[in-house]
């Protein structure tokens, strides 16, 4: 076991889906995986391994924010040999053309976090998705006739920000939406030379103030999950 994951070597698949919410990990495992077994309950951060279309696949909650997802990504890669890490999460729209329930592939992740400036002594690292996963995700979405958008996203350290118009500057530079984890995931994956992709579903809009209900989130999340499951 690692510090935060109570699994034995070999119990976690090379490809893993990473929702922020551990109960969503449970829902994904119970809804989509065959023979899913729970391998982790430490801190309630549930993790499961099963099969999807006969291929071994895991799903692990990560918690919210860059520090939390960075801990799980680090341990999954270094202790359990995970090679393909696919975040499946929600995001808030910050550009006019991004609508509720849109599926977004994060090609790159800008950030208000000081994480990479600290890591690179003030330099600006550009956290980037794996081209292989990105390419496969696009082909899968097209095959399944699921529409999507792709581009730069903002991984913010703030859900509740002091400046409610902060997102406008990012949007002016064509950043599509705000979430809180992708830049951390992409940076850890890059460090260890493995693949990462964040697939996001728009759950709210910072422009219109719209929000999806919990029930809507469940049904609209399924498009994103169906794409992610094909990436193993
Ligand atoms: N995830 C979903 N909506 C968000 C928002 N408005 N800000 C940050 N992360 C989010």
Automatic annotation (TrEMBL):
Domain of life of the organism encoding this protein: Bacteria
Keyword ATP-binding annotated: no
InterPro entries: DeoD-type, Nucleoside_phosphorylase_CS, Nucleoside_phosphorylase_d, Nucleoside_phosphorylase_sf
Alphabetical list of Pfam families matching this protein: PNP_UDP_1
Domain Nucleoside phosphorylase: 16-222
Keywords: Glycosyltransferase, Transferase
GO cellular component, one term: cytosol
PROSITE patterns associated with the record: PNP_UDP_1
EC number annotated for this UniProt entry: 2.4.2.3
Gene3D superfamilies: Nucleoside phosphorylase domain (3.40.50.1580)
GO BP, sorted A to Z: purine nucleoside catabolic process
Name of the top EC class for this enzyme: transferase
Molecular function GO labels: purine-nucleoside phosphorylase activity; uridine phosphorylase activity
Family as reported in the entry's similarity comment: Belongs to the PNP/UDP phosphorylase family.
NCBIfam families (UniProt xref): deoD (TIGR00107), PRK05819.1 (NF004489), PRK13374.1 (NF009914)
Protein name, as recorded: Uridine phosphorylase
């Amino acid at each position: 076991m690692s510090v935060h994951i109570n699994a034995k070597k070999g119990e976690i698949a090379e490809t893993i889906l990473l929702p922020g919410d551990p109960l969503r990990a449970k829902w994904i495992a119970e809804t989509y995986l065959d023979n899913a077994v729970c391998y982790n309950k430490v801190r309630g951060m549930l993790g499961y391994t099963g099969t999807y279309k006969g291929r071994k696949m895991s799903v692990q909650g990560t918690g919210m924010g860059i520090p939390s997802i960075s801990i799980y990504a680090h341990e999954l890669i270094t202790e359990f040999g995970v090679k393909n890490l696919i975040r499946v999460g929600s995001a808030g729209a910050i550009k006019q053309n991004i609508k509720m329930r849109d599926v977004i592939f994060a090609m790159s992740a800008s950030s208000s976090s000081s994480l990479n400036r600290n890591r690179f002594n003030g330099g600006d690292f550009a956290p980037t998705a794996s081209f292989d996963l990105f390419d496969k995700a696009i082909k899968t979405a097209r095959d399944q006739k699921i529409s999507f958008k792709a581009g730069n996203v903002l991984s913010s350290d703030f859900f509740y920000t002091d400046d409610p118009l902060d997102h406008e500057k990012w949007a002016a530079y064509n950043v599509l939406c705000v979430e809180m984890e992708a830049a951390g995931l992409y940076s850890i994956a890059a460090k260890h030379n493995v693949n990462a992709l964040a697939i996001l579903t728009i759950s709210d809009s910072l422009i219109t103030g719209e929000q999806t209900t919990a029930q809507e989130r469940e049904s609209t999340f399924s498009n994103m999950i169906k794409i992610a499951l094909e990436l193993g």
